Each structure stands twice: as C-alpha cells, then as structure tokens.
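Work Package 4 report. The design task specified in the project plan requires that, given a folded chain encoded as structure tokens, an amino acid be chosen for each position. We show below one input record used in the internal validation round.
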C-alpha cells in the first residue's frame, strides 16, 4: 500500500494531480488541488494537497504567491507529524528560496528535507518522488554531486515500488551539471555529458518511456551541441516543443531557440533574442546567457567581445563554486543540530552533550547512551573511526579547512548509518559509532558503506593535493560484560583503512 492509499479522502484526485505535475502540467493540477482543499477535512489529505499546491506554484513561476502558499503548507505539515510530508515540503521550500535568491535559507531546507526523507520507513512511489524533488532542488542550488546521489535514491526506492528507472532519468540535473562545467572552462566535459544525453534520449525513445516534462531539457541539450557545430542524432527543434507549462520549460525553449540561431549562422538574431526576452538566472545559472552571448560574438567574428562575455560568464559562475557550497552545506547541518539541542533538552540534556563544530553528540553523551543501553541488558557493535591525513590537512591548509573536513566526515557518517544507530565525535578527529543489536556482519557492512562514501567525496576540491580517508576498527559492548572503555581499546587496536 502506497502513502496516498492511507489517506481518508480524495485519493484518486490527488493521484491524478500528481501525474499531471510529473508530466509538466501544473496549471491543470492546480484546480484539482484547490478542489480537494475546498471540500477536504482530513488533516493529512489537506497537508498533502497544500504541499503539492506549493510545488505547482513553484513550477509555474508564480513567485508572488509563494510566501502565502509556503506558510499554509508549513502549518499543515506541523500538525501532521509525517516525515515524508515534511521532507517534500522542505524540498519545495528550498526551490522557493532559490527563486528568491536566498542561499542560506535554501541550504537549510535542503538539509532538513534530506533528514526527513531519510527517516521515511516506507519505500513507495510517493517517497521516491520526494527524493526526486529533493534531487532537483539540490541541482538548482548548485549541489550537483548531492543531486545525483538523491536521484539514485529515488531510482532505488522507485524500483522497490515497481517504477521503471527511466521515470527518474532527471535529465535536468545532468544538463545543469553540463553547463556548469562549461561555465568553469571545461567545454569538453560539458560536451561529453551532452553527448551522453543524446544517446540516452535515443534509448528512451526505443522504450517509449520518456516523460513529457523532459522534452525541452533534451531539446536544449541538443541545441547547445548544435550551437558549437556538433551534429546530433535527434533534431533539437522537435524536442523544444511541448514539455509542459512551467516557467523553466518556457526559458529552456527560448534559450534553445537562441542556440539554434547560432547553429544556423544567425548570431546577430541570436543576440537580439537574448536581449529581447530575459530569462531567469535560476534555470541554468546566471552564467548561461552570458556564455551564449560569447558564442554569438565568436560566430560573428568579434573575438574581443566574445572574450569579454566569457570572462563575465566565468565571474558569475565563480560565485556558485560547488566546493564552497559543500562546506556551507555541512556547516548548516551542524548548526541545525545545535539548534535542535536547544529546542529538545529532553533528548540531549544540555549544551555540554553536543559537539559545537559538527553538531554530533560528544563523548559525555556517548557515555550516557552506552550506559543506558547496558543497563537494559542490550549489546551493540562499537566502531572507532579516525581521519587519515588530518594532520597534513591542518599543516598545509590551516585549521579552518581541518574543521570543514571534520564537518564533511560528520555528514558522511550521518548519511550512511542505519536508522537507530548512534554517532558521536569522541575527540579530535575520532568518531565513535554504536550499532544497537548489531554483530560483526552488520558492522562490516556499515564499515564498507562508510569507506565508499568517504572515497566518493571530492576532497581535492576542499583540500587540493591532500589525501583524506577513514580508518576504522570494531568491537562490542555488552558481550561478556565488556564496557565502553574496553570496547574502544579493542576497536582502536583493530583499526585499518576502510
């Protein structure tokens, strides 16, 4: 049974509205959602409808209505303590903050959305779409790596619910990643991604599983290649038609037409089109129109103007460098944990139980947690992790970068732990993991996931030229009367790179 099936009323109306949204028809979904809100009385039904209405207004670009819609969604979700609804609402709120150019608020919502969706127990279609929407929010705010991770989570959960992987192709994420590479000077990398998208489009056409809302995304990818003189398998102009009613789709159509004018040898017409119709800086980043102007000038033979436009595009792109945002993301996560400490003293005790840098429980809270576990006669696997290369980071890059590395490690551990596991910062670069009820096999699996996640991090962007990794060792508490100190000593003795 899916999440929607548990609602008390208007299930089919909400399911129909959801399909329309997924197909890029938010204008048609909106009156259905308004009808549900006009007659529905069930709190969970109304909360879901308000969250989806908030998303529809974002898709339609109706920025003036967003504050009121968001306030209504927030209030409704507060009254229905459901992690899926909370995660979906925060994903949309991140997009709304992005449209309003409020980075700090947007990043805060991203962190909250990821944590809420990670706590959803059911692997159903609605949860998969929640992760998909979070992936889109990550992408629009410039976190391309996190976007790809979230969309993989959407595919995995969707597969468990019987949805084909193609449903969560999310070409918009790859397109934004491609143009971001170009904005930073890696045109070859951009073209590689665009070529892959062309091949992907051909595969999806063969299976007839292309989502209507993806049409203009693929169309723009084709047009962008055509603008630099690359032949494409499919015809770009065909795919720039249709695709839904969102503001993003309209902007992609316009920019795609600009690219096709460049490809047709009409650079002056393309420049006039760029000047005549402004597009949102949030669709493909503020640097994309400047980059297209550079291509227009180059096609017209005005290389000085092309160089000037390229420099301007690069300056705009530099404001959105992913490595700075990654550090910012982990910093906001730590700040939210600290805020939760203040709000929930019953859970954390007092400030002295929380590490202020990472927001994780500290050594004192770890000891209380394990004492409580042992008093109930339970056992647990205990892992001790430390950072390989941490001293070198501090020496080469300074303690500020060392702090960012610790925050990033805290984020890695938080993402890969099982629900109900406990993570604490023990001392310096050491972290302790407690897995209640787990034995050696479960500990080995968690250790494997930690190693894979740490290896996948882009450490070179944060601390160039310095290798960062994790070493871990494992033991148990509660077995043969072993306490925390003995377990940690045994874990330290068995440490090895993960």
């Amino acid at each position: 049974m899916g999440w929607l099936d548990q609602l008390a009323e208007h299930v089919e109306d909400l399911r129909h509205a959801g399909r329309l949204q997924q197909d890029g028809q938010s204008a048609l979904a909106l009156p259905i959602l308004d009808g549900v809100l006009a007659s529905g009385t069930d709190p969970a039904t109304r909360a879901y409808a308000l969250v989806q209405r908030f998303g529809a207004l974002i898709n339609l670009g109706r920025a003036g209505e967003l504050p009121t819609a968001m306030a209504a969604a927030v209030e409704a979700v507060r009254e229905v303590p459901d992690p899926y609804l909370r995660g979906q609402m925060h994903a949309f709120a991140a997009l709304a903050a992005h449209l309003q150019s409020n980075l700090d608020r947007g990043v805060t919502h991203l962190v909250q959305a990821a944590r809420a969706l990670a706590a959803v127990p059911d692997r159903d279609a609605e949860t998969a779409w929640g992760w998909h929407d979070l992936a889109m929010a990550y992408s629009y705010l410039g976190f391309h790596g996190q976007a790809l991770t979230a969309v993989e989570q959407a595919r995995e959960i969707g597969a468990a619910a019987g949805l084909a992987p193609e449903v969560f192709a999310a070409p918009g994420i790859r397109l934004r990643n491609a143009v971001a590479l170009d904005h930073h000077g890696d045109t070859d990398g951009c073209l590689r991604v665009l070529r892959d998208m062309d091949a992907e489009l051909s595969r999806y056409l063969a299976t007839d599983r292309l989502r209507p809302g993806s049409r203009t995304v693929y169309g723009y990818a084709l047009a962008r290649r055509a603008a630099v003189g690359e032949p494409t398998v499919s015809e770009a102009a065909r795919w720039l038609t249709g695709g839904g009613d969102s503001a993003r789709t309209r902007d992609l159509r316009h920019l795609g037409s600009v690219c096709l004018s460049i490809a047709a040898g009409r650079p002056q017409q393309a420049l006039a089109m760029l000047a005549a119709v402004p597009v949102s800086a949030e669709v493909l980043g503020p640097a994309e129109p400047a980059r297209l102007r550079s291509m227009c000038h180059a096609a017209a033979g005005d290389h000085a103007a092309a160089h000037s436009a390229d420099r301007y595009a690069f300056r705009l792109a530099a404001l959105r460098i992913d490595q700075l945002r990654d550090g910012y993301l982990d910093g906001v996560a730590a700040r939210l944990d600290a805020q939760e400490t203040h709000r929930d003293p019953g859970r954390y005790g007092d400030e002295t139980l929380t590490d202020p840098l990472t927001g994780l429980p500290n050594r004192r809270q770890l000891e209380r947690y394990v004492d409580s576990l042992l008093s109930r006669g339970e056992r647990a696997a205990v892992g001790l992790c430390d950072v390989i290369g941490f001293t070198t980071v501090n020496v080469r890059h300074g303690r500020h970068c060392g702090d960012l590395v610790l925050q990033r490690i805290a984020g890695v551990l938080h993402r890969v732990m099982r629900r109900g596991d406990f993570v604490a910062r023990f001392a310096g670069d050491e972290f302790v993991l407690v897995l209640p009820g787990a034995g050696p096999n479960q500990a080995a699996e968690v250790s494997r996931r930690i190693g894979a996640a740490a290896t996948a991090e882009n450490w070179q962007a944060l601390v160039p030229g310095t290798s960062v990794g994790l070493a871990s060792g494992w033991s148990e508490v509660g077995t043969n009367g072993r306490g925390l100190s003995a377990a940690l000593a045994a874990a330290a003795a068995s440490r090895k790179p993960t």
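Residues 355-497 form a domain with the Alpha-Beta Plaits fold (CATH 3.30.70.270). Validation will be extended to a larger panel in the next phase.
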